[in-house]
Amino acid sequence: PQERLRGIVRASFSAVNFRREVISAWLNFYVLAQTLPEAKRLLRIYQRRLHTNLCHDLKKIVGGRADDVARGLGAVIDGVYIREALKQSSPDGDGAVSMALTYLSLELEARA
Prior knowledge:
Helix content: over 70%
Radius of gyration: 14 Å
Oligomer: single chain
Strand content: under 5%
Shape: globular
Largest sheet: none
Number of helices: 5
Structural class: mainly alpha
């Protein structure tokens, strides 16, 4: 389960997904979701899918904390996209993966 979770994080920041154009599109999508019902519905679908995928494996590791950890990790992923959209330098996929995996590791260690 931990390797699958790490794979989800890595895929979120892969070179294909974590490019300036894609990051900008996501930022625009977040804004559109605030005013357009269709965009809001699609964003909810994306968020539920990510949450469900994360919870699937987190339940095996952290049990009843899976929902909270999944929401936190999803927020880290979204937050990194937002921060990357606002900075001037090129996206740092490795740094983004490292940040999200550090959060995940801290949450998994907290179960002990």
